[in-house]
Amino acid sequence: MQTTTKTQGHLVRSLGLFSATVLVISSIIGSGIFKKVAPMSAELQSPGLVLFCWLLAGIVSLFGALSNAEVASLLADAGGEYVYFRTIYGRLFAFLYGWSCFAVIRSASIASIAYVFAQSLNSLWTLPTFSPEVSQLSLFGIFQPFDNIGVKLVAIILICSLTWVNYKGLRFGEGLSNIVTGTVVACIVLIVIAGLTIGGGSFTNIQTPAPTYVSRSWTDPSLINILFTAMLAAFWGYEGWSSVGYMGGEIKNPNRNIPLALTFGVLGVILIYLAVNFTYLYVLPVTDFIQIHESKNTIAAVAVVKHFWGTTGALLVSILILIATFGCTNTTALMASRLYYKMANQGLFFRKADYIHPVYNTPSYSLLIQAFWASMLVLSGSFDQLTDMLIFASFIFYGATTLGVFVLRYKMPDTPRPYKVIGYPVIPALFIIFCIVLIANTLIERPREAGIGLFLILTGLPFYFYWTQNNKSTSA
Are the CB atoms for 263 and 64 separated by under 8 Å? Predict the structure, then answer.
């Protein structure tokens, strides 16, 4: 259910439990469900391990969501973790989180989802590219802005278009998310049913690893490293579940509805992801997905559906991916902009972002700033670079939010809690340990992506001291 109350200069409290749950699902379901099985197959070489990684990543994400929900129920407000961290750890840490969302986490998420939208369009109509000599030009030996230029330009056009949609108002943007999410879930169910019945697959595909697969014991450190590296891909598939907290000021009864939306949304996505990835691996052998990973701009879901529905099926699933990534990009842009508005309102972001459009009642300048930086990230690198970087940065702050469960129970023991995390203290403690291991493993196995992520996070420090000093001068 949804109500609308017009309040000039403030964001509107309007979304009920159903709409909040849909926003959680739509912010998660995007290109991860169609694309990430290929890089995971290349990393793990085993269908069983791929499915295990999807399940484990889902359980870990659920643990994080359950822990996040206790903090959200206690401190619900527009701005999500930014508000939580300000209460738990103080102003500087809250700012670093907000800046990280802008510089890395949410902007890179928008960029990477839009990137897959463009790749899917490229599977329908081949987009133009520069010559190999121009495509290979790089900045600092890291960034290749001209590589895959047709795909990148389409991704930027999508980001700008959806910024305009959300500029026009919450009801328009949120209504679009509901329609898109319902369409995508229905089509995914159809793919699963068709793949398992007429897909010509076999349980032998599920049971047979690649010829290059090396069997290892579960205690082998190399297997653990490979699993954690592969889960970077899976976690990007689940990324976005915490975004609903940014809209705490626009959700009815947020102390109750945010925890429920997080729980129902993540559980629903786990079931969807397991079903569709099982179908992929049932229809095609793992070696096919390894080859898909090695070929540029090829999407796993398109290859699977093409196998049993031919060119028409490939066309339909490409259109579905366009719809899914369109909706997910829209939802991410819709929610993250609320965070920057909140920071600017407190003098800790670009001043223009502290503005609510008098007609559309949206944080219009915040949306425009976000679109500009997300477009720059599209140009900066490849899809996998973007996703590995944002997951590394995300889990630093996911762990900090979960640690906040313990901190708040110590600092605010008598404050009523509408929701308490199930399995306390075991579930939040396990999630924190997992975050530490994932961060350490990424630093070792993906040093470039982790290094860029850390650098972008730390670039916020000079801005923080400038804005803080400027605020003191203004108030003097």
Answer: no
Closest CA to 183 of 306, 314, 327: 327
Give the three-state DSSP class for 398: helix
Check residue 145 and give left, alpha or beta (phi > 0: left; psi -120 to 50: alpha). Answer: alpha
Contact at 8 Å (CB) between 438 and 104? no
Query: Long-range contacts made by residues 225-229, C-beta under 8 angstroms, separation at least 24?
Result: 225/441, 225/444, 225/445, 226/43, 226/44, 227/44, 227/49, 227/52, 227/53, 227/56, 228/437, 228/438, 228/441, 228/442, 228/445, 229/43, 229/441, 229/442, 229/445, 229/446
H/E stretch holding 275: helix 254-283
d(CA 461, CA 185): 41
Contact 218, 434 (CB under 8 A): no
Residue ranges of the chain with per-residue pLDDT less than 70: 1-15, 23, 26-32, 76-79, 140-142, 168-178, 181, 240-251, 254-255, 296-297, 327-328, 331, 360, 381-383, 473-476
